[in-house]
Structures are given as structure tokens and as C-alpha cells.
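Operator note (shift B, R.M.): manual run for L-lactate oxidase requested after the automated queue skipped it. Running by hand, logging everything below so the morning shift can see what happened. Input copied straight from the record, untouched. If output looks odd, do not overwrite the archive copy; leave it for review.
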Amino acid sequence: MTYQEVVQNAKKNIGPHCKVCPNCNGIACKGVIPGPGGKGSGIGFIRNYQAFRGYGLNMDTLHEVSQPDTSVELMGKTFKLPVFAAPVGAVQMHYSDLYDDLSYSAAVVEGCHAAGILAFTGDGVKSEVYDGTATAIKAQNGYGVPTIKPWRKSEVIEKIRTAEAANAVAIAMDIDAAGLTILAAQGKPVSPMSTETLKEIIASTEKPFIIKGIMTVAAAKKAADAGAYAIIVSNHGGRVLDETPSSLEVLSEIVAAVGDQTIVMLDGGVRSGLDVFKALALGAKAVLIARPFVTAVYGGDREGVALYVNQLEAELSNAMLMTGCARIADITEDKLRKL
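Run finished. Output pasted below as returned.
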């Protein structure tokens, strides 16, 4: 199977909301929720994709680099490349019933582990969703990051204990899910969380704790001060608040503010190895990707995940070779040109 065949299979298996567009840019699905679209006008999702088009790579082949090293060390582990699958939930509602949250999580967790990276997994209204993802992670020797919604503190800590029992390499919270009104419609609302509560939650575990959904310097400082191992600059794919800037647009200022205190990752609009390169050049230590991994799973299950990861690696490696970067640390802002 090729990745092109994976995409063609996904077109047959996903629908009717997601069109598996040639460019997953948020235009055809804007405002489509349930479905993969951005909230309201959809501009948050669209901006995430378009922000990457605003940068070009500075080609330079006068160097001695022959085989770039795309590997990275994070969370006490070494990964094939600085890319992780982002948490995705309610796949039956948004994509199709070929997979449910448990079977999707098992496929993406196993596929990512086999491909040399790892997946962040989702949470849900029903407790068996989170418990099932923890089981999938445990089966892969802990190679996965269960991601908890901002529920009540007691429930969050209970879910942390489940993640610890699964020996997960880290634990995350997508604090930006506070804007998911679809959860309230299902009878289990989420809400914003105070810095003090977040600090208590992080202190309750020795596992690296990652906060996803940071979009301002002020929020980044609060998360860092609360003890976050890492933060993920993300507007939740544009799905929780309309009219947000893109994740990439605010990345550099957040790195400048807290990059010496905590690891900064980026989520939103990353589609290719070239996009990975651009995010790293602007200060991210790693990126998360969501919708293309859904396409990979629906189009090729675990093999589809591996094929997509391999494509990202080939694209990132080529970008490094053609810009004179022998290792990830060599990818710096001077390798980019603002267009």
C-alpha cells in the first residue's frame, strides 16, 4: 500500500462531514461541527493552515551534511522525529462509524509506536473511552500520552492514576477543551481552570505533565509557573473559539517568554515535513498533528499511520538536507524566509 492509496481509501470510509480534501485547509468544512471544521466562520482552522504558507525555506547545498538525523529526545525517550499524533475524540460523530474512540485509539497508538513516535489520545463523556485509551497505551509499554479534559479536579486526578497504572510516558490536559460546548450537550460540561487548581493537579503526579491549548504569553507563563513539563501552543484546531490567530503566528513570542522554563510544542495546521521544519525553526521542540492521522487510520489502519509517518520523515529529512541541517538543533529561524 502507498500513502496515496491510503488517502483514496479514506475518501471511501470517511463521511459525510469530512471530504478528505487534497489540501486539508479548513475551507470546505468551515463551520461543520459535528465534523472536522473550525467553529463559526472556520477562520481559526483556515489561518492555522495558511500561516505555514507565509514562510519559505532558504535552500543551501554548499555544506557537508549527507544524512540528516531527524531524531529527538523528549519525555525521557528518543523518537524517530519530533512529531506526535494529536488527541482526537468522538470519531464516530465527526468522521464515520468505521471506528469508535477505542478502536481508533488502539490503531493510532500502535501505529505510532511501531513507526517510532507516539500518540496523544483523547478523553470522552463516557469513562470507558479514557480507560480504553489507557489500556491501548499500556499494551504498547506506555508509549502514548493520555489527554484529559478539564473536568473537576477530583476526576482529573482519578484519571491521572489510571494513566500512571498504564505507565504512560507523560500525561496531558487539553485545557482549550473548555470551549467544547458539544460535551455540555452530552451532559458533561467542562470549564476553564484556575492556575492554583492546575498547580495542584500537576503536583499530584511525578509523570511529565503537558498543557495543550496555550495561545498567549500570559497563559504560557501561568502554565510554566504551575509546573508544566511542556505546553502545546494550540487553538484546538479552531474548533473552540472563532476568530483566533493561528498557532504558528503566536509561537515565537511564547517561546521567547517561556522557552527557558518549559518545552514548547505546536499543534495546528501541520500537514507535511516542510511544515514540521517551519515550526521547529520558529522555536517549537515538536509538533502535534490531528486530522491527517485520522485520514491515515481510516484509510489504512496501523499501516496507514506508518506510511504517513514515513512520508513526514522523508519530507523533513529532505528539507534538512537542502538547508544544511545535520540535526534537529540546526533548524533555526535563519533557515526561513518570510514571504
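Quick read of the result: The chain has one domain: 72-338. The two ends are 36 Å apart (CA to CA).
Leaving this for review. - R.M.
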